[in-house]
Protein 1
Amino acid sequence: MKVRCILAICLVLTAAGRAQTPSDQTEYFALFMEGKKVGYAIQNRLVADGNVTTTEQVNLTISRLNMPVTMNTTETSIETIDGKPLAFEALQDFSMMMIKITGKVHKNGKADITVTSMGAEEKSTIEWPKGAVMAEGLRLLQLKRGLKQGQSYTAKIFSASIMQAVDIKTTIGGKKNVDLLGRVLPLTEVHTTMKMPDAGQITSTGYVNDNFQLQKNIMPVMGMKVEMVACEKAFALGQNDVLDVVDKMFLPSPVPLNNVRSAKSITYYLRPTAGTDALPIPSGDNQKVRQLKGGRAIVTVRPLTAPKGARFPYKGTEKTLLEAIKPTRFLQSDRKEIIKLAHRAIGDTKDAAEAVKRIEAFVAGYIENKNLSVGYATAAEVAASRQGDCTEFAVLTAAMCRAVGIPAQIVMGLAYVDQYSGLRDRFGGHAWVQAYIANRWVGLDSAFKSTGRGGYDAGHIALAVGDGAPEDFFNLVSTLGQFKIDRIIVNKN
């Protein structure tokens, strides 16, 4: 069992760790998680031919059950000298797959985007987010605002990796003596709060010199401390430590849940571990959330049963459902191999409930090699390789549902397991699917079905819903580790 939180961490570090890099100079940073060196970041700014090209790379290696996985993201932005966006590029290497995103920004407020994966290209045009800047635009804003203690300002930063803008708020603090791997320098503290659309937020603490050049950045993620520290090239690119993050993906259950599959509903009482802000936990057809004072929340999960008699494909006009049947760069429901698998799974049934049931069971048996070695694969890659874990089960299930016209979304959250790799009675990071049938979203979990558990049940707590893109895991990254489960009530009736 795993989640793609590490992908989101790479994206967050790329956005939050942007430094003031002098022209034609490369800055190197070592990345640490829980005090162990796990990778590096490289930042470069080049001024030539009247344009500014900024490149930011994050390379991160973690281990899960002694199985190392390396993930690499690189973002390049091209802007005018005065910070106007011109073009961008993102390369995402997720251990098994490579995605390339290129874009050109036009004066009419639109941007043409090309996404390349597995040799296939997908072209689209988006509205450029109003007021959004990239690396150089942010650098100029920082220089303009300066480092006066107490001031704060906001900005929209466009990230090529997720093809959307991220809202950030910057607050300038005082000067502190900061340890930089043995060097102690007086630096200005800068707090940056980053918020993704329809997701939670993450606040990082950076330390910059008088030229606004980043020297150190500290970010809490999933209950862990992630640090980026300026250093020499040799150390940044040098050997990493081994950090196994499996235990960080799990939350203790206050009580064992015996035969969770038989529960009609389960109510969870959640308490934030820090702060009093409301936890960004979504409500839906299968999960209801009641927010309490002090940031506490009561989450009741009551799985719905798919009603018989509903037909497919979906022929309505609701925007959310139309989006949920479209192919995406991770759910390539228009690829012939996905369509072929989907029709092979559903056979001759015309009933939507029976169709998703058959797809869930088919994927449960189709993925033969269940392992943690895959960084993150698209549905097409899973169809070819037949390997992966919960996220690979989920993307293939969702894509196959969409291929036959049944709206489907990826759900990220926590799921109860009585034991896993020596851990007992835990809620672990997990991914599953919800499909829309007869005016309701119904949960599907082909990964659990493959283990004999039976599929989706009340032992699932949803934290985010999306199309399975890495940015969809941001809410999981920003929420996991920020709360505890104080109490659980199981309803068997």
Protein 2
Amino acid sequence: MKYRGIDYTVVQGLGLQLWKWGFALDRKASKGQAATKVQAVAEAKRAIDRALAPKKLKLIRTDRV
């Protein structure tokens, strides 16, 4: 499957209530699991959104008076 240009997978685990998801971005893999397929897709999309979100940088003042 594809979300925001990132390929991700969702597969059923060995148990009836186990779904696994995963994707790779910049050679860094992210994965997780959920109880239902719908939850797994939602968690994968949230993780992709977090990975693509701009990082917040903390500004440091250098001109101390």
Protein 3
Amino acid sequence: MRKDYDFSKGKRGAVIPSPGKTRITIMLDDDIIEHFRELAEAEGVGYQTKINAALRAATTTPKGGRAVEKPITEAALRKILREELREVG
């Protein structure tokens, strides 16, 4: 049966190309990889997908070049004001 296989025109690599993606080799710390594997398993996605999403979030900024910040909460604002007033008074 194996004599019937002809791989003379075969190519190495992914069977289905992924447009817009590039295969690279990168060295990451074991604890970082484990962290993303745990996150990925909990969400049912691949850990490389989670790493890609984290890198995208870290590099994507809206127009104007500033990172998106969460709005400050009332409790946090009160704490900041108390600290500032304590320093002044």
